[in-house]
Amino acid sequence: MQAFELLSKTMQKKIWDMKWDKLMPIQNRTIPVIIETNKDVILSSATASGKTEAAFLPIISLIEDKAENQLKVLYISPLKALINNQFERIERLCEYSSIPIHKWHGDISQSQKNKFVKNPSGILQITPESVESLFINRTEHIKNLFKGIEFIVIDEIHSFINSERGVHLRSLLSRIEKYTEQRPRIVGLSATIDNFDLVKEWVNFKDTDNVEIIETVGSEKALQYYLMHFETGEDRKLPVELFEDIREVSRENKTIIFCNGRGQVEETTVFLNRLAEKDNVGETYFAHHSSIDKKEREYVEKTMVESKTPKTVVATSSLELGIDIGDVDIVVQLDSTFTVSSLKQRLGRSGRKKGADQMLQLYTTEEDSLLQSIAVMELVLDKWIEPATGYPAPYDILFHQLMSICQETNGITLEALISNIKGNHIFHDMQKEKVEQIILHMIEHDHLEKVKGRNELIVGIEGERILRNKEFYAVFMTPEVFTVLEGVKTIGTLDKGLFDEGDYIILAGRLWRINTIDFKKNKIYVKKAVNGKPPMYGGGPIDIHNRIGEKMIDILCSNQQFGYFNDTAEYTLQDMRKPYFEYGVQPNERILWKTKHEIVFDTYTGSKNAQNLTWALRSLGLNIKKRDGLGRIIIEGFNGDITEVIRQAQEKQWVFEDLVRVTHEQELFVSKFSTYLPKDIQEELHVISKINLKGMVEYLATHSFRVIDLE
Fold first, then answer.
1. Alpha-helical regions (H) of 535-678
2. Relative orientation angle of helices 9-17 and 80-93, to the nearest 10 degrees
3. Alpha-carbon span 192 to 169, nearest angstrom
4. Could you count the other beta carbons within 10 Å of the beta carbon of residue 535?
5. pLDDT tens for each residue of 176-220
6. Confidence band (pLDDT; 50, 70, 90) for 327?
């Protein structure tokens, strides 16, 4: 039977009304699996390939007769903005059924939430953090809320798998199962996912054979791409010519410009609007990132969707996922992404119009960025992306969930709590002794308290201090910030740092002067200005995969010509290749460039390997000045035989203590809840998260190392 005929009459009518001439490939393959089996399903296909409809057309067909008076589908999203975007899309699909759609996040009023809690029904769109809040604040209602759930749809599932949020979400889903009348089926959606064995384990470790992977490889869309290199001057300011070229590219096109930092978004937006003013057009470029106020971001999204004239949004990864900003003609990437999956996700934002190609314009401003951009682009063309690795040893999230479970149960015995954790999908393989050690440590430090007489554990006073903080619901770290206001209007936030009254800043693509700073209330009051500098924002650690490092040296050691360059990129790459050709460097060699004052070790490997090599060399007595983003290790003040040190590193039987004892405090693994754990478990968390002896030893064994004296 054809997929279309398996759908309910109302869904068939909706498809006719939408004037679809055929179902997309991912939809044809998914509909029978959801309707005719009881399997969990992972949908992996390109952006704009119809994954959402592939999931919801059959799900709505199955639940429409019973969803009016019972919650049937939990839709989990990584972003509130994505919930708001997808709400209308799913609501349209439900037009001819009586399935209610509900949103639940921080911007939804308490009255709406209370109304839903009293009469849960249909489809609930929610973030993991809001699911956590249900367990904490609506304990008495969750049995009634969750009992009828049949499907859990996880959008952008790849964004969860490797992170602490993914551990948190998987734990919450296990806890939900305790209240449902039947185990809900999980349907995951992603455009960039690999290592399906790990994903299947994450979804259903008890029965991985019952997880169906539905993958449509590649896109029917052709990809047009080009790279322009503009060298940055010594002042590190981006050249005017770069902005002029971006202006030309975006002048007649609806465009997304992706930057790697919030400060760069601000600077780029302001400069491009200055160029647009010279063309006598109004505001054309809009900033979009997580530190801009939600109302402003929503205004930008709405403007992009509704505008009939070319508009451009300048964004960080805030627009990397599927937030709808209408049909985009071209994607611009300013300097290289750090991952292949990120670039693939971003370029998928263009080419959504029927018959349109995907368009990608790359810009680089430094030699390193040029080399990394080529490597990442070539890996995209090779159809390779980083495999999912999961989140190792989630003891920190266990701490969080232990408090949450004690709050949910309003008291639980030690034995029942351990049994609960061992039955949890994400913690099931943790040693029982470790779980008990963490619980006893929490009791000792008053995070948990044993009630006399009842022999039950509840949240302790110190635990209440953590639990009652509004930051408890999220397991990821967030920086301390100032809220920035113009009068009573919120503009956004600034990371707490070195700001003074009278400073000029850029925020939300506009220029401001700081009038007053209220340190007690963490507020900054600003007025419009005619000048400003982009503020400094903190960022997370950069994690580059080994394959990207290897690709970079392959490029340097080859004569391969790339047809998508401008002349400046071509000359710059040839200049970078000269020393490699001059000294006959082979792709499997790793060079230590020696000068009078320092040795530069070009590791060309991944971030974790480079960090482990840094610690290994430090433990052998070397003074490591720094390690940069591309894994170069700068060794200072060493006059001995560096070849002998490398030989020692190759022959040594490494144990993790060798690296731990030379690790600086700022290099230790730290997460939101890790510091509450026993010291030995904190160390174990660091070792498992940051040390990979097998990978380092393999790197040392499989490469040859040569010292080239440049004096």
1. 546-556, 567-582, 607-619, 642-651, 656-660
2. 100
3. 19
4. 22
5. 999 999 999 999 999 888 889 999 999 999 999 999 999 987 556
6. confident
